[in-house]
Amino acid sequence: MRTRLCLSGVGKSFTMHLRGGIRLPVVSHVDFSVGAGECVVLGGPSGAGKSSILKMIYGNYACETGQILVTAEGDEIVNIAEASPRRMLALRRDTIGYVSQFLRVIPRVSAENVVAEPLIAQGATEGEALVKARDLLCRLNVPERLWSLPPATFSGGEQQRVNIARGFIAHYPLLLLDEPTASLDARNRAVVVELVEEKKRNGVAMLGILHDEDVRERIADRIIDVASFKAAA
Ligand SMILES: Nc1ncnc2c1ncn2[C@@H]1O[C@H](COP(=O)(O)OP(=O)(O)OP(=O)(O)O)[C@@H](O)[C@H]1O
Questions:
Q1: How far apart are CA 138 and CA 140, in angstroms?
Q2: Residue 104 confidence (pLDDT) above 90
Q3: How far, in Å, from the CA of 82 to the mean position of ligand 1?
Q4: Any stretches that span the bilayer, and where are they (predicted)?
Q5: Which ligand 1 atom is the nearest neighbour of the CA of 53?
Q6: Which atom of ligand 1 is nearest the CA belonging to 61?
Q7: Which among 4, 1, 3 has a CA at the least distance from the CA of 173?
Q8: What is the per-residue pLDDT for 225?
Q9: Between 216 and which of 72, 80, 210, 232 could a Cys-Cys bridge form, CB atoms 3.0 to 4.6 Å apart?
């Protein structure tokens, strides 16, 4: 199995500058890798550092020590810990996807266009992207009458499903899943499980946080206990 993501010696602490510079160590010596077609789940208690690890991989949090290697297009290996902001934006367009439970609503843009946008950014025509967007919205049981409306007024569950469609529409070699099934009903959880299985078959490497035990059991190939990376205070 080809490695898509490899973390070695990764550490992170937060410094509270407005609180007298108090240092809060979170994780240290984080070492693991994820291969193509594999879904690895980060486990461990609340506050162990699961979200912080995902955010370092997506470049939202700076990584203090170690390296985060991602295999980008053309088999180029990039160290996220040293990537420039411009490089990071390109990686987010083509290489690393992020599916969370929250939709960042873009005013006046219709649900189907919100979903189609990442595929258009990767070079698809608007027509192709809209066909795929509508198919995903249909699979995720978003009523057709909503597709042409901006999602700002949708229910929490409808917005979440629009966001999942947006996260799964494009092909990224690495996909980060941040509680994508939280508060979904059983029918839509089953759709997300199917979407993850399809990504696995397409060789996508996935790293996720999944509190739902049933979903975790169905899609996790491995669980990594983040508590084992606890940093000393
Ligand atoms: N931006 C931040 N500033 C300060 N401290 C932070 C920040 N982000 C996270 N932390 C702290 O880092 C620790 C790990 O948080 P993180 O959200 O990564 O944990 P988690 O394992 O994902 O928890 P949960 O399962 O509850 O979501 C916590 O103690 C949290 O308070």
A1: 5
A2: no
A3: 22
A4: none
A5: 18
A6: 1
A7: 4
A8: 96
A9: 210
What average pLDDT does the chain have?
Answer: 94
C-alpha torsion angle, residues 17, 18, 19, 22 (rounded to 10): -10
Three-state DSSP string of 144-196: HHHCCCCHHHCCHHHHHHHHHHHHHHCCCCEEEEECCCCCCCHHHHHHHHHHH
More confidently predicted of 117 and 21: 117
| Cα of 208 from ligand 1 centre, angstroms | 16
- Cα–ligand 1 centroid distance for 49 (angstroms): 6
Please work out whether the CB of residue 210 comes within 6 Å of at least one atom of ligand 1: no
The ipTM value here is 0.95
State the distance from the centre of ligand 1 to the C-alpha of 51, rounded, in angstroms: 7
Tell me the three state secondary structure of residue 14: strand
Q: What is the pLDDT of residue 50?
A: 96
| The pLDDT of residue 17 is above 90 | no
